[in-house]
Amino acid sequence: MKAHPAAWASAFPQGDRATLERALPDYLLHCRWFRGKARSIKSAAVIDVIAVPGAADAGALALIGVDYADADSETYVLPLALATGDRANEIVSRSPERMLAAIGHDPSDGVFYDAVIDAQFSLALLDMIEHQRCFRGSLVEIAAAATGRFGELRGSTAQSITPRVLKAEQSNTSVIFGDRLVLKLLRRLDAGVNPEVEIGRFLTERSPSVHVPPLAGWIDFRMGGSRAGSLAVLQAFVGNQGDAWHFTLTELDRYFAATATAGEPPSPPRGHLTELADEAEPDRIAARYIGAYLDAARLLGKRVAELHLALSSGSDDAAFAAERWSARDQRLAYQAMDGMLVQAFTLLARRLPALPVELRAHAEKVIDCRDHIAARFEAFRECRPTVARIRCHGDLHLGQVLYTGDDFVIIDFEGEPARPLAERRRKRAGLVDVAGMLRSFHYAAYTAMVEHQRRPSKATDATPHWANAWQTWSSWAFLRAYVQTAGGAASIPKTREEMRILLDAFLMEKAIYELVYELNNRPDWLIVPLQGIAQILGL
Q1: Between the CA of residue 500 and those of 151, 204, 471, 476, what are the distances in Å?
Q2: Which residues on adjacent β-strands are paired with residue 236?
Q3: Whole-angstrom Cα distance, residue 424 to residue 414?
Q4: Which of 411, 494, 431, 436 is nearest to 199 (CA)?
Q5: Would you state the pLDDT for residue 106?
Q6: Which of 263, 403, 446, 476 has its C-alpha lying 20 to 30 A from 354's C-alpha?
Q7: Is the separation of the CB atoms in 41 and 23 below 8 Å?
Q8: What is the DSSP letter of 355?
Q9: Residue 229: what are its φ and ψ, rounded to 5°?
Q10: For residue 444, what are the CA distances in angstroms to 60, 332, 366, 398, 449?
């Protein structure tokens, strides 16, 4: 993965490529969007540099190749610029976290920095999309495209669209232009169209009434003739009061405050959630304290069902046409479940001695139930699904939904970042998204309960039971509304038994995925998937 010398020289005539490349590994490890933190980096090199006309400080898009000692190499995109003199001193002073490397002994000699902080750079990318421009480096070509709704979504050219970088970086970097547009830079580059672009384009053209941000445009990359994919996506900005996760935590804070003096919680309902969903009304006591959030959960269920109906409506588009499950599809899905189970339990067994005593007891309980967990996946393998395979969100949870004050808008269609792109684009059962949201209700209930218990004289022995009541009836409201809205759609199982088998398998798959994630990233949160697994097993 070597850069073409001429490309580097033409973009940065004063640059010192070796200095920059030595600094890249350390810089990447401090970036939230870098996904290789748990791996051993051998080297990082500049593959190519594509100048972006109109950007300040010789701004360009640099493609960075990262080689690992223990994994396949990856490619990242890095907005790169070189500042000198007073401008370099300003970067060092105001945005030191964005500085990559200094040239010479004094910052004024020159500093390389992540140009995403520069307003001119962001505006240059927006201009590129608006005019559908194409630029070339020595090895890489980037090309922009706009949808037919770009002008409408952009608004009047006289209207201010001052860019600002969204501080809450996740696996990508987002830039907001006024209150009109959001540009998401897809930091890790994968071969193939990103689902964010593909699904956004389909829904914008076919189902404009679905509650998702309309697509305004995108930028693709091509490396030679063998590798191409998505580099950035431009969507409408959705005015909001935060995401559904924070909205839910606020509601839960009110709920726990109200139930602190409420006495005994309602008895847990008997039977499986799929049976509970047949109930027309929730428990009277639980409903009194949960209040309006039950309506919010119903609305969430309705919006997810509407999304699935839209995503399965493209009978003339092979990428979106609903398909029946084949034996091969089911085998592949089962093998993925079983493989994740092996990975999770191998990792859990290795980390077990280092876990705190109480957490270790929960982990050992789950380890003892491995056969029961595997049985949920075996039941899926032996089932003959009547549901169709459709395009899904793929990583749906409360944090992937914006709350507008009276409604919800579903965002972020990339799928689970840890999965390969081809797998994220694969058609699956719509219940995968349902399971993701149901697991998110558990995370929210646990998070709010822990926060409540930290407050002096607030928690009681009944607090966990009230948390369980909230999770149960919020899940009931969501699932019941989802099924009612989807009606007889191909994504809904024909029998309750099939619904139970599929939902159990997908819930367990999600909880096992969470187990691996928490072991690798947030060990303090390991209790949540451990409890989730126990809940699914009915323990």
Answers
A1: 47, 33, 18, 14
A2: 181
A3: 7
A4: 411
A5: 75
A6: 446
A7: no
A8: S
A9: -175, -165
A10: 41, 31, 21, 9, 8
Q: Give, as one character, the DSSP assignment of residue 352.
A: G
Nearest Cα residue to 244 out of 424, 487, 483, 412: 412
CA-only gyration radius of the chain, Å: 25
- Whether the per-residue pLDDT at 428 is higher than 60: the answer is yes
Amino acid at 531: Q
Could you tell me the pTM of the whole model?
Answer: 0.89
Domain spans of the chain, in order of start: 5-115
List of residues 6+ apart from 321 with CB closer than 8 A: 312, 314, 315
Beta bridge partners of 131: none
Cα–Cα distance measured from residue 304 to residue 300, given in angstroms and rounded to the nearest whole number: 6
Task: Dump the DSSP string for 489-502.
Answer: -TTS-SSHHHHHHH
Total length of the chain: 539
How far apart are the C-alpha atoms of 154 and 150, rounded to whole Å? Answer: 6
Q: CA triplet 56, 50, 97: central angle to 5 degrees?
A: 55
**Angstrom distance (rounded) from CA 17 to CA 392:** 42
The half-sphere exposure of 181 on its side-chain side, counting CA atoms within 13 A, is: 33
Q: Which residues of 37-76 are buried (b: 16+ CB within 10 A; e: fewer)?
A: eeeebeebbbbbbbbbeebbbbbbbbbbbbeeeeeeebbb
Helix extents (H) in 312-403: 327-351, 357-368, 370-382
Closest by CA to 350, choosing from 514, 520, 529, 512, is 520
Give the list of residues 6+ apart from residue 109 with CB closer than 8 angstroms, or none. Answer: 84, 88, 102, 103
Q: Contacts from 460-464 at CB under 8 Å and sequence distance 24+?
A: 460/260, 462/259, 462/263, 462/264, 462/265, 463/256, 463/259, 463/260
- pLDDT digit string, tens, across residues 365-403: 999 999 999 999 999 999 988 889 999 999 999 999 999
3-state secondary structure of 353: helix
Question: Predicted confidence band at 13 (pLDDT cuts at 50, 70, 90)?
Answer: very low
Q: How confident is the model at residue 207 (pLDDT cuts 50, 70, 90)?
A: confident
C-alpha 167/C-alpha 170 separation (Å) is 9
Q: Is 68 left (phi over 0), alpha (psi -120 to 50) or beta?
A: beta
> Residue 330: which of 372, 382, 373 has the closest Cα?
382
Residue 316 — φ and ψ, nearest 5°?
A: -95, 5
Whether the CA torsion 11, 15, 19, 25 is positive or negative: it is negative
pLDDT of res. 168: 66
Residue 57 scores a pLDDT above 50: yes
What is the torsional sign of CA 448, 454, 459, 460? positive
Question: Quick check: 6 pLDDT over 50?
Answer: no
Angle value at C-alpha 338, between 353 and 67, nearest 5 degrees: 75
State the Cα–Cα distance between residues 372 and 391, nearest whole angstrom.
30
At 226, the pLDDT band (50, 70, 90 cuts) reads: low
